[in-house]
Amino acid sequence: xxxxxxxxxxxxxxxxxxxxxxxxxxxxxxxxxxxxxxxxxxxxxxxxxxxxxxxxxxxxxxxxxxxxxxxxxxxxxxxxxxxxxxxxxxxxxxxxxxxxxxxxxxxxxxxxxxxxxxxxxxxxxxxxxxxxxxxxxxxxxxxxxxxxxxxxxxxxxxxxxxxxxxxxxxxxxxxxxxxxxxxxxxxxxxxxxxxxxxxxxxxxxxxxxxxxxxxxxxxxxxxxxxxxxxxxxxxxxxxxxxxxxxxxxxxxxxxxxxxxxxxxxxxxxxxxxxxxxxxxxxxxxxxxxxxxxxxxxxxxxxxxxxxxxxxxxxxxxxxxxxxxxxxxxxxxxxxxxxxxxxxxxxxxxxxxxxxxxxxxxxxxxxxxxxxx
Length: 372
Fold this sequence. Notes:
By secondary structure, the chain is α/β, with parallel strands linked by helices. It has three domains: about 1-110, no CATH class; about 120-160 and about 220-370, Isopropylmalate Dehydrogenase (3-Layer(aba) Sandwich), CATH 3.40.718.10; about 165-215, no CATH class. The protein contains eleven helices and 16 strands. The protein has helices at about 40-55, 70-80, 85-95, 110-120, 170-180, 180-185, 195-205, 220-240, 255-270, 300-310, 320-335; strands spanning about 15, 20, 30, 65, 95-100, 125-130, 145-150, 160-165, 215, 245-250, 275, 285, 295-300, 315-320, 335-340, 345. Helix 8 (about 220-240) crosses helix 9 (about 255-270) and helix 10 packs parallel to helix 11.
């Protein structure tokens, strides 16, 4: 396809055939150097990648690097934070590498990382975390850290449906709630002028009666949950893991986080034949099914953040929503674990077991592109 500001190098495209990456001898791979430490990291990384490919294939294969731009560099060069060329390059060449991108806190642009995930529908953020001997750790048994986190990447509060306090958009939502759901509207503590005025008067602060409430919406869908949890269980089967833990805050957010948990158990039973253990809700894949013995369980998010440090051996594969996954990806690293790698990837329907499409279970589990 034609590009506006960049030109692909000579080389060949990576393709997918029946869920497996077909990699030519000179694949074109787009990359973003990134902001901050990104250029320094990339300078070292490129040498490592090239040397590894040369050694692995005895010089028969070589990566053709295609630089594209995002973040501050793109803003400086093209006056765009995320040029269309960059998104299209990742779409066309399938595999790409991205360095760290700047995201101002508060006002300004939204996260470019989130934008890329949503535009390319990269719904799995796959983060294996493992302890490496010799790395200093504040906990007694860091060697027990060995878990794989499946973080949902496109929904939850990271969807970016958010309106600033005091804006007409936020007020429209407040007015809608006040009219259509008056009982729930009362839970918005300072959602009316009267409530705001009464509070400031009570505390003796020289403030007015303006309604100043920011609004954010947290979408969690069954489809989005199914594809994430199905991927996590399939990974556990393929890699002979012992359990999949659904991490959520469903005790408080019953119809978003709680629904994620409930759908997870449904998926385990419907698509993997799992059976309840002692009346449930925990369940296990029986001996006559692929993945026999894998336990599907759940845990509350705040407790999990503690337990991944105190009892890391209890966690193997974790499936969770976007915000929880953000926290959980960092928590075990604080105990001495390190991300082996971080990958974001996308399944297509034909990669899924036929049972997911309504047929009998007679095909391998969901596969990460490029992995048999």
